[in-house]
Amino acid sequence: MRRARRRSTSARKSRRRRVTVTRAPGEHSALELERISCALSAWQGEPGRCQWCNTAIEAARRRTWCGNACARAYQRNHIWRFARSAAKRRAKYFCERPDCTAERRDCEVNHRTARDGRGYGPGCHHHLSPDQNGLGGLEVLCRAHHREITTAQAKERAARRRALKEASSLSNPS
Predict the structure, then answer these.
(1) Could you please report the per-residue DSSP string of 57-105?
(2) Quick one: which H or E segment has residue 154?
(3) Residue 107, CA distances (Å) to 3, 104, 117, 166 in order
(4) How far, in Å, CA of 136 to CA of 143, rounded?
(5) Are 110 and 138 in contact, with CB atoms under 8 Å apart?
(6) What is the pTM of this model?
(7) What is the pLDDT of residues 99-112, one digit of tens each?
(8) Suppose 100 and one of 10, 42, 49, 95 were both cysteines; which one would form an S-S bond, judging by CB atoms 3.0 to 4.6 Å apart?
């Protein structure tokens, strides 16, 4: 019986087709539009400029960031796993609620503005601090306080769903 020979990793990679998306000049992807509209980013959308600090990119192999510092700043404020660990470090791994006596490292990170099941994909909702309107931002809580907040939010969502269901049943008596 013959064994099937497995291709090397490089052979498998070379068989993959690269998909290139062509856009009209001046047209931006959804991720680029988010970076342009981000309150923390200085980028205005010009190509060849850092998408965080808006300085000209001079390194030949870089396209998005002028350096690692800008890439990390973006990650800390837009990608959940980095924002979560940055928030914990900022709070020194303690609950931010006053008079909380929870043990150190018994902490979880909570979005101050509820995500309501909209996922944790990249975005401005992971900013470490609230914006000028007080929206967004992350807070570090002990498990008990986090459970208390999320339970209250779940009850609010259930009450809204019940109210919508009752309103739709009253307007459509079948």
Answers:
(1) P-STT-SS-SSHHHHHHHHHHHSHHHHHHHHHHHTTTS--STT--PPTT
(2) helix 143-171
(3) 51, 7, 21, 38
(4) 20
(5) yes
(6) 0.73
(7) 998 888 779 999 98
(8) 95
